[in-house]
Amino acid sequence: MNLPNSIQEKLSKIGITELNEMQLSSYNAIQECDNIMIKAPTGSGKTLSFLLPLIQLIDPNANEIQCLVISPTRELCLQIESVWKQLSTGLKVNTFYGGHSMPQEIANLSNPPYLLIGTPGRLADHISRKTINCKSIKYVVFDEFDKSLTLGFQDQIQYIIEALPNIEKKIMVSATSSIQVPKFIEFEPHHTINFTINETEKESISFKKIIANEQQKTEMLYSLLSQLEDKQAIIFCNQRDEVDNLSKWLNNRKVNHITYHGGLDQDDRERALIKFRNKSSFYLITTDLGARGLDIPNVSYVIHYELPLKNHEFTHRNGRTARMNAQGEIIIFEQPDILNPDYLPKEIEHLQFNPLINKIENPVFTTIYLSGGKKEKINKVDIIGFFCQKGNVEKHDIGLIQVNDHQSFVAIRNEKVTLLINSIQSEKIKGKKLKIAVAY
């Protein structure tokens, strides 16, 4: 790799031996150009593509906000922050978003971060309060910019840009090949790095279809899920109400699943993603809110329970599977005698069911919640030691662990959950008595 040794060392610490072509092209372009457009599919590593060159551009001796990353959702913001922290830059980062404590965010600015990540509305709020030194910001990244426009953040982004007098570089990042940049961004001329591809041309993705009318769909979905064994699937609907209705039906059939949409509060959405990542649930039912920006690796199936209205949402949904050259399958529910959208592949194979399999197996893990995290000086090693020594479980009984600022989540094998909770209820971890329970 034609990269500085310091960058290669940071990558090796997180298990990356080489960058892909898109990341290398982006690294060089961001160093050399003022306006850069990066277009690449979901799962291609776009976050790393713009964070690595920022490490080189930021002046560690200037204790001020130098780079602003504008991202449309809280989940995307936290994902970017996580990657930055994994790189062990030694450069402070803060993440601001709606629902977060404004006084805490303002307090964090007393020792300003080098990198500030935030949603458009929250960043605009800080600028209106004059809590951010706008003059120090030189580099601006627009992550998933097309999604920001779709969500109606154009006015807030314009307000932010017009408040920053000393921008030297603008980096636009998108998974969509066709993107219209508003004039207020002042993005011309710009250099484009385009690695987007037609999802129907990805060899790692196969398409299959199920033909069912409205009365048949739920039973056909149940039959489908019974064929997937322990493979994970994201099931897309178009509206929140349809997600909730489908969830009620699956609950009546005692099918373990989770839901994710804009009608849920942020804590519930975050818990849903944690359970899906740690395989406490195999099925995530969502609207197009779950079509991009979520850090969920190795999803085997994308199921279009309802087809989206627009081509680009179909593309983004499909991008949740076959990530980083893995295999994936797209399953489409079609209604008889209804004309299919033009964006569907012309020839789609009918999915064949095994009639002898009609029972859905539940996951082997349950998610456990602890009311302590990084701010209480608790880490993954502490949790493993505590559970094994006091909770009567073995290491192989513990799955994925996620430690947040003030709470942690641990996947535990189902058969050990009751024993674990009963054993540790009166115990302390690192001298602290925490609430420990099944995460609902």
List the defining traits of the structure above.
alpha/beta, 18 strands, 7-stranded parallel sheet, Alpha-Beta Plaits, Rossmann fold, 440 residues, 14 helices
Please outline the helices and strands.
Elements: H1 5-13, H2 21-32, E1 35-39, H3 46-57, E2 67-70, H4 74-86, E3 93-96, H5 102-108, E4 115-118, H6 120-129, E5 139-143, H7 145-150, H8 154-162, E6 169-174, E7 191-194, E8 205-211, H9 217-227, E9 233-236, H10 240-252, E10 258-260, H11 266-277, E11 283-286, E12 301-304, H12 311-318, E13 328-334, E14 349-350, E15 365-370, H13 380-390, E16 398-403, E17 408-413, H14 417-424, E18 436-438
Parallel strand pairs: 1-6, 1-7, 2-4, 2-5, 3-4, 5-6, 8-13, 8-14, 9-11, 9-12, 10-11, 12-13
Antiparallel strand pairs: 15-17, 15-18, 16-17
Helix pairs in contact: 2-3, 6-8
Describe the structure.
The protein has 440 residues and is an alpha/beta fold. Helices cover 32% and strands 19% of the residues. A seven-stranded parallel β-sheet has the order 3-4-2-5-6-1-7, with helices on both faces. Strands 10-11-9-12-13-8-14 form a seven-stranded parallel β-sheet, with helices on both faces. Helix 2 runs parallel beside helix 3 (46-57) and helix 6 packs across helix 8. The radius of gyration is 23 Å and the shape is globular.
